[in-house]
Structures are given as structure tokens and as C-alpha cells.
Amino acid sequence: MVRTIPSNLSSLILYMAILGASACGGGTSILAPGHRDLLFVDTPDVVDGPRELDPGGLRPDGEAVGEDVAPAADMAAEEGDEADTAAGDPGPDDPGPSDPGQPDPGPGDPGPGDTGSVAPYTGVYAGLEDVTGTELARRLCALVTDGYDSVGYSTAGDLIRDEVDNFGGRLEEIYSGIWQNPGGLNMEHTWPQSKGADGIAKSDMYHLYASNPDYNSPRGNLPYGDVTVKDWPDAADEVCNHACTDAFPGRADVGCCSIRGTDGSGQKVFEPRDAHKGNVARAVFYFALRYEGCERPSISAYDGYGASHAAITEAVHKEWNRLDPPDADERARNQRIEVYQRVRNPFIDHPEFADRIDFTP
Question: Fewer CB within a 10 Å sphere, N or C end of the chain?
Fold first, then answer.
């Protein structure tokens, strides 16, 4: 509440007496810019109603941010719930790059192919500058395991639709890049359930994204990879937002689209649009580290085609990690998920870690 004190002297004296009574409630006096009148702004000590969730959680340097904010959803949801599709019909599609609800990545973010400057090795990452191999994997595994909180599958889906990836009531569908209402979207498991994303891994939000079932069904449980011969979709049903501006250099004609087909070795893979490729890689590396072996994390189960092809998949994912480094949106998502799961994805904080670990041991 703002009250204006008249600049008239007699009124001022009377009004100061009134203010003396209200000052007990606490307040701050300021001068309105360009005016002679004094403003008094009430600042009550107790604010009724829900608090806005601070997305900061714990920063990489270990400093607490908003640590007393309780999660807005029930952390004790039963594990294994299968309700992963929101009720209601999808809203109209909205090409999202100009969407006002989309966070502004800011001028300092690296563009495609620019790894940007390496973040400082402070807090939980102190001393990891030159650590590699199994020792790095072991130490990072402790960071993603110790203190981990599983929210349960049903709650994880609700959090992603309603808070983690929701901006102004809309979400960016991962395969098309189109912003739409959450109705009808389900959860895409970057690491397929049939290849090991079960138990608490099924509900780990670091590898869950909202997707149109018409798009993630053709993907099935295929690994992600570079398609050389496309078999889906046909031209009439392409999965694209042609207004996208975040395709890799020289790929504006295809980089906005997600496709399925065979890779250079003849194995069937699914290729996401360029802007989601780095996110996919960092989610896969996180999952391998967290659930597939602390000291010798492996993506072999995720790949599913044997050791030689797993090495190809690893190389492709590491290349995507470099071409599509974390942007402001992905870093903010890391912080929002940390509020609930109490751990971070270290490959978002330090994407260079991926190049120091062998994921096909």
C-alpha cells in the first residue's frame, strides 16, 4: 500500500502524527521520483498466502539459496504410478522462439558449437580440475547419489508439467520445439524404461521431458543418434518448428526437426532437433553415472546394439554435448529440479566432465 503525504506544511504535520501510529507495523519511506511528496510504503512483517518457490536450491559452490522453501508437491507420492498423461485436450500450438513465456537466455550464453568459458571448480566441484576417468566418475557419482530424494513417478510428471518446464501455462514440446498447453503431453524417458529406467530411475526428472505421444511413440526405446536415411515422418507429418533459430550452423533446413531412421552403421536411431541434442547427451551421461555403475558408468544398455555401436553412440553424444552446450534455460532447469531431488546434474554445471569419462568401458 502506498500513501502520499501532502507537501502542504499544516497537512504534513497532521499526517506525520498519523504515520507515527502506523509506523509500528514497519515501513519504508521513499521520495517519489520527480515529485516533492513523500511516499510511505507499508512492508508488513508477515505475508499471508503461498510463497513463491525460489528455484535456486543449492548453487554449485554449495551456498544455500532458498533452503527453507518446502516443495510445492507431495514428496511422498507412491513409486511406480503410471499416470503420466495430463488430463484435457492439447491447446493450440504456438511457435515458441518468440513466446513471451520463454525465459530470456541472456546475452552471455554460448551459442551452438561454442562451449563458453569453463565454470569455476568451487564448492562440491573443488579439486576436480584435473581429475579424470574412474576417479572422476566415482566422485561425481557420490554427488548425484548422496542425499538424493525420489519424488515418485506421478509427482515427477506433475512437477514437470506444472512447475519445472511450465512457463506462463505452456511447455516446449521437446521434439517439435513448439510451445503448447500441457494437456495431452506425456513423459518421455530419455533413457527408456525397457532399458533400465525403472524403480526410482523411472521418476528421475533429469531425464524426463514433456512430449507429444505422437512423437515419442515412433522413438520407442531407440537410442538417439545421427540419422543418415530417414524413415519417419513423411513430409506431411514432419516434426518441426521452422521458425526455430537454434539449429546448428548450416543446418537451418533440417536442424529444427526430429526424425527417425538408420545411422551410418545401418542401425535404427532417433535424432532429436539440434536444440535438444546437448540436453539429451547430458541426461544420458547423468543416468549412466547415477544408475549404471559409479566407477565404470556405461551407456551400453541404453544403446542396445553391442559394444562397437555403443562406442559410436558415445562419440555422437559427446559431440552433441560440445555443439549444444548448456544454455540459461537448461541451467535454470537444473536448479529447479535440485529443489526437489536435492542433487544436481554435474554435466550441466560442467559439461567438460563428459569428455574425461569413458562411457563404454
Answer: N
DSSP state of 167: B
Phi, psi dihedral angles at 100 (to 5 degrees): -65, -20
Cβ 210 vs Cβ 224: under 8 Å = no
CB-CB contact of 6 with 15 (8 Å): yes
> Would you give per-residue pLDDT tens digits along the chain (361 residues)?
433 434 444 443 434 443 444 443 443 333 333 333 333 333 333 333 332 333 333 334 343 333 333 333 333 333 333 334 443 343 444 434 334 343 333 333 444 444 446 889 999 999 999 999 999 999 999 999 999 999 999 999 999 999 999 999 999 999 999 999 999 999 999 999 999 999 999 999 999 999 999 999 999 999 999 999 999 999 888 899 988 999 999 998 899 999 999 999 999 999 999 999 999 999 999 999 999 999 899 999 999 999 999 999 999 999 999 999 999 999 999 999 999 999 999 999 999 999 999 999 8
**Residue 261, phi then psi, degrees to nearest 5:** 170, -155
For the whole model, what pTM was predicted? 0.71
Cα-to-chain-centroid distance, residue 127: 26
Q: Is 15 helix (H, G, I), strand (E, B) or coil?
A: helix
Q: Where are the beta strands (DSSP E) in 106-197?
A: 171-172, 178-180, 186-189
112 residue type, one letter: P
DSSP string, 206-254: GGEEEE-HHHHHHHTTPPB---SEEEE--GGG-EE-TT---SPTT-TTT
In whole angstroms, what separates CA 71 from the centre of its chain?
17
Angle at 207 between CA 201 and CA 277, to 5 degrees: 150
**Alpha helices (runs of H) in the chain, residue ranges in sequence order:** 9-22, 133-145, 153-159, 213-219, 274-291, 300-303, 307-323, 328-341, 346-349
